[in-house]
TrEMBL record:
It is a multi-pass membrane protein. Its main location: mitochondrion. The chain crosses the membrane at residues 12-30, 42-61, 68-91, 97-118, 139-157, 177-197, 218-238. This is NADH-ubiquinone oxidoreductase chain 4. Keywords: Electron transport, Membrane, Mitochondrion, NAD, Respiratory chain, Translocase, Transmembrane, Transmembrane helix, Transport, Ubiquinone.
Protein backbone atom coordinates (compact mmCIF):
# COMPACT_ATOMS: atom_id res chain seq x y z
CA UNK A 1 0.00 0.00 0.00
CA UNK A 2 2.91 2.39 0.62
CA UNK A 3 3.93 3.04 -3.02
CA UNK A 4 0.27 3.64 -3.89
CA UNK A 5 -0.06 6.09 -1.02
CA UNK A 6 3.08 7.92 -2.16
CA UNK A 7 2.00 8.12 -5.80
CA UNK A 8 -1.61 9.12 -5.23
CA UNK A 9 -0.90 11.67 -2.47
CA UNK A 10 -0.22 15.35 -3.20
CA UNK A 11 3.37 16.51 -2.91
CA UNK A 12 2.97 17.72 0.68
CA UNK A 13 1.51 14.36 1.67
CA UNK A 14 4.33 12.45 0.00
CA UNK A 15 6.99 14.56 1.70
CA UNK A 16 5.40 14.26 5.16
CA UNK A 17 4.82 10.51 4.69
CA UNK A 18 8.43 9.89 3.63
CA UNK A 19 10.12 12.25 6.09
CA UNK A 20 7.99 11.93 9.23
CA UNK A 21 5.40 9.15 9.28
CA UNK A 22 7.73 6.36 8.14
CA UNK A 23 10.19 7.43 10.83
CA UNK A 24 7.46 7.24 13.46
CA UNK A 25 6.94 3.64 12.35
CA UNK A 26 10.65 2.90 12.70
CA UNK A 27 10.69 4.55 16.12
CA UNK A 28 7.72 2.44 17.15
CA UNK A 29 9.53 -0.75 16.10
CA UNK A 30 12.60 0.29 18.10
CA UNK A 31 10.54 0.99 21.23
CA UNK A 32 8.13 -1.93 21.00
CA UNK A 33 10.27 -4.77 19.59
CA UNK A 34 10.95 -7.21 22.45
CA UNK A 35 14.58 -7.90 23.25
CA UNK A 36 13.91 -11.58 24.02
CA UNK A 37 12.33 -12.42 20.64
CA UNK A 38 13.18 -15.94 19.51
CA UNK A 39 15.76 -16.53 16.78
CA UNK A 40 13.37 -18.74 14.85
CA UNK A 41 11.06 -15.74 14.44
CA UNK A 42 13.80 -13.24 13.63
CA UNK A 43 15.24 -15.27 10.75
CA UNK A 44 12.18 -15.20 8.47
CA UNK A 45 11.40 -11.57 9.29
CA UNK A 46 14.92 -10.34 8.48
CA UNK A 47 15.01 -12.58 5.39
CA UNK A 48 11.78 -10.96 4.18
CA UNK A 49 13.10 -7.44 4.92
CA UNK A 50 16.40 -7.95 3.10
CA UNK A 51 14.70 -9.74 0.20
CA UNK A 52 12.34 -6.77 0.00
CA UNK A 53 15.34 -4.48 -0.52
CA UNK A 54 16.31 -6.47 -3.62
CA UNK A 55 12.77 -6.79 -4.98
CA UNK A 56 11.99 -3.08 -4.61
CA UNK A 57 15.32 -2.27 -6.26
CA UNK A 58 14.54 -4.51 -9.21
CA UNK A 59 11.11 -2.87 -9.44
CA UNK A 60 12.77 0.55 -9.54
CA UNK A 61 14.90 -0.54 -12.49
CA UNK A 62 11.86 -1.02 -14.70
CA UNK A 63 9.67 1.83 -13.43
CA UNK A 64 8.79 4.58 -15.91
CA UNK A 65 6.84 6.65 -13.38
CA UNK A 66 9.30 8.92 -11.54
CA UNK A 67 7.21 9.27 -8.39
CA UNK A 68 6.60 5.52 -8.20
CA UNK A 69 10.33 4.92 -8.61
CA UNK A 70 11.13 7.18 -5.64
CA UNK A 71 8.34 5.54 -3.62
CA UNK A 72 9.70 2.01 -4.15
CA UNK A 73 13.19 3.29 -3.35
CA UNK A 74 11.83 4.60 -0.06
CA UNK A 75 10.32 1.20 0.74
CA UNK A 76 13.64 -0.51 0.01
CA UNK A 77 15.59 1.70 2.39
CA UNK A 78 13.06 1.15 5.15
CA UNK A 79 13.57 -2.60 4.68
CA UNK A 80 17.14 -2.13 5.89
CA UNK A 81 15.87 -0.13 8.87
CA UNK A 82 13.35 -2.83 9.78
CA UNK A 83 15.98 -5.58 9.63
CA UNK A 84 18.36 -3.55 11.83
CA UNK A 85 15.76 -2.78 14.48
CA UNK A 86 14.86 -6.46 14.83
CA UNK A 87 18.41 -7.38 15.88
CA UNK A 88 18.14 -5.00 18.86
CA UNK A 89 21.84 -4.26 19.42
CA UNK A 90 23.16 -0.76 20.17
CA UNK A 91 25.12 -0.68 16.90
CA UNK A 92 22.14 -1.74 14.78
CA UNK A 93 19.77 0.67 16.51
CA UNK A 94 22.23 3.51 15.98
CA UNK A 95 22.56 2.63 12.29
CA UNK A 96 18.78 2.47 11.92
CA UNK A 97 18.34 5.92 13.48
CA UNK A 98 21.05 7.42 11.26
CA UNK A 99 19.59 5.87 8.12
CA UNK A 100 16.06 6.99 9.04
CA UNK A 101 17.18 10.60 9.41
CA UNK A 102 19.23 10.47 6.21
CA UNK A 103 16.42 8.79 4.30
CA UNK A 104 13.87 11.30 5.57
CA UNK A 105 15.85 14.19 4.12
CA UNK A 106 16.82 12.45 0.88
CA UNK A 107 13.43 10.94 0.05
CA UNK A 108 11.58 14.17 0.79
CA UNK A 109 14.03 16.05 -1.43
CA UNK A 110 13.54 13.59 -4.29
CA UNK A 111 9.74 13.81 -4.05
CA UNK A 112 9.94 17.59 -4.13
CA UNK A 113 12.24 17.54 -7.16
CA UNK A 114 9.92 15.13 -8.95
CA UNK A 115 6.96 17.41 -8.29
CA UNK A 116 8.85 20.39 -9.72
CA UNK A 117 9.32 18.48 -12.96
CA UNK A 118 5.69 17.37 -12.92
CA UNK A 119 4.50 20.98 -12.61
CA UNK A 120 6.46 21.86 -15.74
CA UNK A 121 5.81 18.80 -17.91
CA UNK A 122 2.38 17.64 -16.61
CA UNK A 123 3.61 14.06 -16.69
CA UNK A 124 5.51 11.71 -14.41
CA UNK A 125 6.99 9.61 -17.22
CA UNK A 126 10.79 9.59 -17.16
CA UNK A 127 11.11 9.66 -20.94
CA UNK A 128 9.16 12.95 -21.09
CA UNK A 129 11.44 14.67 -18.55
CA UNK A 130 14.76 14.18 -20.28
CA UNK A 131 17.17 17.04 -20.89
CA UNK A 132 16.12 19.12 -17.88
CA UNK A 133 19.71 20.19 -17.36
CA UNK A 134 19.30 22.55 -20.32
CA UNK A 135 16.08 24.04 -19.00
CA UNK A 136 16.98 24.22 -15.27
CA UNK A 137 20.75 23.95 -14.88
CA UNK A 138 20.74 25.04 -11.23
CA UNK A 139 18.31 22.29 -10.22
CA UNK A 140 20.66 19.70 -11.72
CA UNK A 141 23.04 20.25 -8.81
CA UNK A 142 20.25 19.43 -6.36
CA UNK A 143 19.30 16.40 -8.41
CA UNK A 144 22.93 15.28 -8.20
CA UNK A 145 23.06 15.76 -4.42
CA UNK A 146 19.78 13.87 -3.92
CA UNK A 147 20.73 11.02 -6.25
CA UNK A 148 24.20 10.54 -4.78
CA UNK A 149 22.95 10.57 -1.20
CA UNK A 150 20.19 8.13 -2.17
CA UNK A 151 22.80 5.65 -3.44
CA UNK A 152 24.92 6.21 -0.28
CA UNK A 153 27.99 7.79 -1.84
CA UNK A 154 30.92 8.18 0.56
CA UNK A 155 31.13 10.09 2.85
CA UNK A 156 27.42 10.92 3.05
CA UNK A 157 25.35 10.17 6.14
CA UNK A 158 23.41 7.52 4.19
CA UNK A 159 26.58 5.47 3.79
CA UNK A 160 27.32 5.62 7.52
CA UNK A 161 23.87 4.28 8.36
CA UNK A 162 23.99 1.56 5.70
CA UNK A 163 27.50 0.43 6.69
CA UNK A 164 26.45 0.13 10.33
CA UNK A 165 23.37 -1.88 9.38
CA UNK A 166 25.30 -4.14 6.99
CA UNK A 167 27.99 -4.74 9.63
CA UNK A 168 25.49 -5.73 12.31
CA UNK A 169 23.59 -7.95 9.89
CA UNK A 170 26.84 -9.65 8.82
CA UNK A 171 27.87 -10.22 12.44
CA UNK A 172 24.43 -11.68 13.14
CA UNK A 173 24.43 -13.90 10.03
CA UNK A 174 27.14 -13.81 7.32
CA UNK A 175 24.59 -14.89 4.69
CA UNK A 176 22.92 -11.48 4.83
CA UNK A 177 25.91 -9.81 3.15
CA UNK A 178 24.79 -11.23 -0.20
CA UNK A 179 21.35 -9.63 0.12
CA UNK A 180 22.52 -6.26 1.41
CA UNK A 181 25.39 -5.97 -1.07
CA UNK A 182 23.11 -6.80 -3.98
CA UNK A 183 20.54 -4.32 -2.72
CA UNK A 184 23.16 -1.56 -2.44
CA UNK A 185 24.39 -2.27 -5.98
CA UNK A 186 20.89 -2.14 -7.45
CA UNK A 187 20.20 1.10 -5.54
CA UNK A 188 23.27 2.70 -7.11
CA UNK A 189 22.18 1.58 -10.59
CA UNK A 190 18.64 2.95 -10.50
CA UNK A 191 19.69 6.17 -8.72
CA UNK A 192 22.19 6.96 -11.45
CA UNK A 193 19.71 5.87 -14.11
CA UNK A 194 17.11 8.24 -12.66
CA UNK A 195 19.57 11.16 -12.65
CA UNK A 196 20.84 10.51 -16.18
CA UNK A 197 17.36 10.02 -17.63
CA UNK A 198 15.91 13.23 -16.22
CA UNK A 199 18.92 15.50 -16.71
CA UNK A 200 20.74 14.31 -19.83
CA UNK A 201 19.62 14.12 -23.45
CA UNK A 202 17.63 16.49 -25.64
CA UNK A 203 14.62 18.42 -24.44
CA UNK A 204 11.28 17.18 -25.69
CA UNK A 205 9.16 19.44 -27.85
CA UNK A 206 6.75 20.08 -24.98
CA UNK A 207 9.54 20.94 -22.51
CA UNK A 208 11.28 23.69 -24.47
CA UNK A 209 9.11 26.37 -22.84
CA UNK A 210 9.96 25.18 -19.33
CA UNK A 211 10.36 28.09 -16.92
CA UNK A 212 13.43 28.17 -14.63
CA UNK A 213 13.44 27.34 -10.93
CA UNK A 214 11.75 29.86 -8.66
CA UNK A 215 13.16 31.29 -5.44
CA UNK A 216 10.78 29.32 -3.19
CA UNK A 217 11.78 26.08 -4.92
CA UNK A 218 15.47 26.81 -4.50
CA UNK A 219 14.87 27.62 -0.83
CA UNK A 220 13.10 24.30 -0.28
CA UNK A 221 15.99 22.46 -1.91
CA UNK A 222 18.52 24.37 0.19
CA UNK A 223 16.65 23.45 3.38
CA UNK A 224 16.96 19.79 2.38
CA UNK A 225 20.55 19.85 1.13
CA UNK A 226 22.00 21.90 4.00
CA UNK A 227 21.12 19.40 6.78
CA UNK A 228 22.45 16.54 4.63
CA UNK A 229 25.77 18.31 4.16
CA UNK A 230 25.99 19.40 7.83
CA UNK A 231 25.26 15.89 9.12
CA UNK A 232 27.81 14.48 6.68
CA UNK A 233 30.44 16.81 8.11
CA UNK A 234 29.48 16.29 11.76
CA UNK A 235 27.40 13.22 12.58
CA UNK A 236 27.27 14.12 16.28
CA UNK A 237 24.63 16.73 15.45
CA UNK A 238 22.11 13.85 15.53
CA UNK A 239 22.84 13.13 19.18
Amino acid sequence: WLPKAHVEAPIAGSMVLAAVLLKLGGYGIIRMAPTNISTTLIYPMIAMATWGVIMTGLTCLRKTDLKALIAYSSVGHMGLVASATLIQTPWSTSGAVILMIAHGLTSSMLFCLANMLYERTNTRMLIAMRGMHKAMPLMTSYWLIASLTNLALPPTINLIGEIQIMTTLFNWSPLTIMMTAMGATITAIYSLQMFMTTQQGHLTKDSKETYPAQTRELLIMLLHALPILLLTLDLELIY
